[in-house]
Amino acid sequence: MFGGRRNNDNDKPSKLMTPDNAPNKNSRGGGGGSSVTGFDPEGLERAAKAARDLDASRNAGAAVELIKTQEVTKQHESAAKRAEYDAYTQQQRASNIQSEAEEARKTLEAQTQHERHRTEYADELERKRQVDMLNAQKYMQEEQLKKQEEMIGRQEAMRRKTAEHEAELRMKTEMAKVGAEAEGRIRQERQNHDLILEKAKLEAVEKRDTVLKAIKDGGKLLGDGLASYVDDKDKLKNTALLLTAIAAGIYTTKTSVSITGRFIEANLGKPSLVRETSRNSLSSIIRHPITTLQKTFRFGQHSSSPTNALKNIVLESNLNERLQRIALSTANTKSNKAPFRHLLLHGPPGTGKTLFARSLAKNSGLDFAVFTGGDVAPLGRDAVTELHRLFDWAKTSRRGLLLFVDEADAFLQSRDLEGDGGRHISEDQRNALNAFLFRTGTESDQFMMVYASNQPSQFDGAIMDRIDEMVEFGLPQPHERKKMLMMYIDRYLLKPPGANTKKVRVEGIDEEQIDRAVVETDGFSGRAISKLAIAWQAAAYGTENAVLDRDAFFRTLEDHKLSMMQKDDWLSGAKERAELLTTDL
After folding, report:
1. Which residues, 6 or more positions from 401, have their beta carbon under 8 angstroms from its beta carbon?
2. Which of 64, 189, 202, 432 has its CA 20 to 30 A from that of 420?
3. Distance of alpha carbon 509 from alpha carbon 553, whole angstroms
4. Distance between CA atoms of residues 40 and 354, nearest Å
5. Mean pLDDT, rounded, of the chain
6. pLDDT for residue 441 is more than 80
7. What's the rounded Cα separation, in Å, for the pair 141 and 134?
8. For residues 409 and 353, what is the distance between their CA atoms, to the nearest angstrom?
């Protein structure tokens, strides 16, 4: 079955199963009996017989191979168990090493913690020792200071007692000295009383004789001189002429100074209420003589024409035409010596009221003066005097004067109380208002009143009666805002005034950006747009080459809008607080 039997005797099962020290059958004590050692060989014989039977079998080789395979399998199993044991041994060794390392770490941590506790305890003991030492030193210093203070106190007490004793001794000595001196003088006066009395009498008699002789000599000299002067008629005449000339000179000088002062004050001076004027003053003549001559004779850049009254002023078309008619009417009124009409310019701040009034005066041939309503109240009782001085000064203008009252509602408020919420003006302000009404009650060809106000409804009724024409200045519309933007961009960026002013280079800003800026500036006044252009100029000057690009253009616009919104919020809050305070009052 497995390829026949093998001829190798060593591979026979009987040979393999026979032990090396098996007993020989022919040995002593053989047969079926036991050996001398007590070993029974029958078992071996049976085994040997079985081996021979197996050896004679056809499957002997296969059995041997099976036995070898089983032996190899057992050896592999033993090797696997041995390898498993070795791995287990290595695992146990690694576990032991890890346990030993963990124990070493715990031991080290315990030692470290113990060392830290010991160090902290030693540090705490050292701090306590230092605190105790400092407390001991402080206590010793306090004790030493206390002893020093006590010693100084004792020394001071001893010094004070010594000084008191010395002062007492000195006082006693001085008293004794003074008493002795007083007693000596008294004794001396008593002894020399007769001599002193005789000396006083002789001195009095001598003084009286001297005075009487001086009076007698003076009277005699004065009488002789007066008699000689009265007898000389030429001396009397010259004296009378001299006294008359002196009196006339004093009166003439006083009158001349007064007249000259009034002339200078009227023509070259300026009332304290006037903040700005086109009239010549002494200081302007000294500082700017050429400009003063140009203004006086109206030539060069100071020439006037009613058609130029709205030059460089951007307004709505209907308002522009109306103001042009007013300017022409004012110029013709001046040339025809007719009474002037008084105007009220009202509207939001910064819409061109003051600019138009100044241009109206210049191009109508009138002098121009500005005073603010808020300047009247602080004058108190002097307000009446200053108002009369202002109108007297206005009447001295040879060309006529346009008197512009800015913030007129601050001064010309109604004198009537409007319920519980009305304002009560002071007595001084009431007197000033009466004086103003007195000076403006009749028509005049010497001055023209132009009022500007944001709240004309607060005007007194008498002031409203004196106003001949009212003009409302509204916020500019898109068309006017675009013209203003172009004008101010040209004035401040492209063609700035001044020979040394650097021009701004504009990059990326065209008609489309201007139209966008017109939309963004909705609600802006003319003054706000002018300030926006100045802000663009400042932003450009903040760069190295004075360049204003598109981003800086709109960023500056947004910043300006935020600033205006913040101002409006503040003004609204202030107005609400004022209304609350007025309501409480």
Report:
1. 279, 366, 367, 368, 369, 394, 446, 447, 448
2. 432
3. 8
4. 152
5. 80
6. yes
7. 10
8. 15
Q: In sequence order, what DSSP letters do the residues of 423-477 get, joined into one string?
A: ----HHHHHHHHHHHHHTSS--SSEEEEEEES-GGGB-HHHHHH--EEEE-PPPP
Question: What is the DSSP secondary-structure string of 3-54?
Answer: SS----GGGSHHHHHS-TTPPPTTSTT-TTS--TTS--THHHHHHHHHHHHH
Find the helix packing angle between 353-363 and 317-335, rounded to 10°: 40
Question: DSSP assignment, residue 235?
Answer: H
State the CB neighbour count (10 A cutoff) for residue 21: 5
| Diameter over CA atoms, the chain | 221
Rounded Cα gap, residues 340 and 366, in angstroms: 11
List, for residues 380-397, the tens digit of each pLDDT value.
889 899 999 999 988 888
The number of angstroms, rounded, from the C-alpha of 29 to the middle of its chain's C-alpha atoms is 135
**Amino acid 261: pLDDT:** 57
Determine the Cα angle at 318 with ends 315 and 322, to 5°: 90
Q: Could you give the CA distance from residue 310 to residue 326 in angstroms, rounded to a whole number?
A: 11
For the chain, the distance separating the N- and C-terminal CA atoms, rounded to the nearest angstrom, is: 137
Secondary structure string (H, E, C) spanning 202-221: HHHHHHHHHHHHHHHHHHHH
pLDDT tens figures, 233-285? 777 777 778 888 888 888 888 777 766 655 555 555 678 888 888 876 555 55
Q: Which neighbouring-strand residues pair with 277?
A: 369
The DSSP 8-state label assigned to residue 400 in this structure reads -
User: What does the alpha-carbon distance between residue 430 and residue 383 come to, in Å, rounded to a whole number?
Assistant: 10
Half-sphere exposure of 427 (CA within 13 A, CB side): 1
Contact (Cβ atoms closer than 8 angstroms) between residue 359 and residue 309: yes
